[in-house]
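My main concern about presentation is that the manuscript never shows what a single data entry looks like. An entry of this sort, consisting of the sequence and the corresponding backbone structure tokens, reads as follows:
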Amino acid sequence: MSLQKGDFILINYTAKVKETNEVFDTTYEEIAKKENLQKEGDIYEPRLIVVGEGWVLKALDESFSTMEPNKPTQVEISPEKAFGQRDPEKIKRVPIKQLVAKGINPVIGMRVEYGGKNAVIRSIGAGRVLLDFNPPLAGKTLLYDVVVEKKLESNDEKIAALIHRRIPITDVNKFKFAIQEKTLTIDMPEETFYLEGIQIAKRGIALDVQKFFPDLETTKFVETFKAPQKLVEAKPTATEEETKS
């Protein structure tokens, strides 16, 4: 069963540089820990991809058509189809005092912002630093070890996955949603009410729904605030009344 454009799939992958075997991205927590990639707040789990939507590198996206669920596949991507070749024009020497003035204590390998662009410090010497403005993976051949864990078939699975993609920090099973006529109504769990960026996330979900489910004209988000339950004071039993008297 080959995959086609528009299919919703969940993938696990590990991406590394072919020349050095350096892992730079993965969906597996144990690999992230081993490679010192793990950051606070990162969530490691299968990633939602809609085939052909450009949510990953184009060369990787195009390779999904040859993959089958649960069958490990390695995809090799040349620099030209990844982040391009390194451009010597994007390597510049600047006075070290300009970085120090910004409160930066330059160290080789450090990522810095200079002139509104991100760069990596390649060398330091003679009062100057060498800044490389090329993308970190420019000139590298990339290897993606990919497993398509599941192809989502039902609309409920797909909508749940779109919600989780935008709000991954909350258990997707806590969201309740229903479709009535041309309206999707999503009941938001209370723990999401004050999440940072929640309004942007809801707008993203609504746009995704409009794109992938054009028959649904409206997306509603319901936030229900419940009054705290009052503790009912237990009445004393007859025996307790007799004890007091």
Observations:
- The longest helix spans residues 198-212.
